Amino acid sequence: MNIVQIEDYPKSLLLSQEFFSRETKLVALESLGKTLVRITEHGLLVAKIVETEAYLGESDPAAHASFGRTKRTNVLYGEPGHAYVYQLHGHHCLNFVVEPSGTPGCVLIRALEPLEGLDVMRRLRGKDESELINIANGPGKLCKAMGIDMAMYGTNLVDPASPLQVWKPLIEEQAQEVAISRRRGITKAADWELRFTLKGNPYVSK
DNA sequence: CTTACGATTCCC
DNA sequence: GGAATCGTAAGG
Length: 206
Fold this sequence. Notes:
This protein has about 210 residues and is an alpha+beta fold. It is about 15% helix and about 30% strand.
């Protein structure tokens, strides 16, 4: 079978840092449909972002930045367009650092629609070829499927040399309807409607 | 050093 | 419904 190479895609697909240097809610919304690309020694892994959550910074009780600048949250205070990765219950979660430098907003990636490298993703997840929907439909699951761990902390997502990148949509589709709902799995500020999903997409988390 | 606590996942 | 699981942050 053919292995998809990164050279098969135009460099112009890479997003700009300016995309991330904007209001957190707007970036969370507009990250839907964008492409997450992981370059591994096992091949290229490509997936579409179908679910995000916004974490607004120090004034957001549910955000890690509410603790202020610590060793863990340090990258949140740096340049936008980098990866904020943290561990929870033995799993990893991926966020995009957003807002201008010094403003610690971030966007949690909660679910992906796998596009390329499905076999590798299944292997990383310990699943067989019958699995499709459950490969990356959760923040911890998608990190395992894409080989994302603490080694990805601080990765520049808009650098063509990075092992983890964010691209524009591979196929320009018609505008898709977005659903807005409450953030999942938190107890503080639980009623804030900051979760964004592509309406009807089967890869959204349960 | 000790303790409490999750932006989760999987199994019963 | 409940256990597994472990780094982080906070308090002593």
